[in-house]
Design goal:
By secondary structure, the protein is mainly α. It has 4 helices and no strands.
């Protein structure tokens, strides 16, 4: 598994208080029980801290699943 994706899943597991193994590849906001609006904001902050990046408001509202989060993180890392 890609190292960055594994880091993202670790952050998600920590923020959402679940095991990494419990986060499916198709994990998304609204379909994963613990990923609610508060969890989403906490996840965004934790990802920004973990990867030392910042997301703008539009990106935050578009980060609706693991795949999209991964793409946003990769994009930010490539531009830094």
């Amino acid at each position: 598994m890609d190292h960055i994706k594994q880091q993202i899943k670790y952050v998600m597991a920590t923020v959402l208080n679940v095991e990494v193994a419990d986060i499916p590849e198709n994990c998304s906001y609204g379909t994963f029980e613990r990923w609610d609006s508060l969890g989403h904001m906490n996840l965004v902050v934790a990802l920004e801290e973990e990867f030392e990046i910042r997301f703008d408001d539009e990106e935050v509202s578009d980060m609706l699943n693991l795949f999209l989060i991964y793409n946003f993180v990769i994009s930010k890392l490539e531009t830094n």
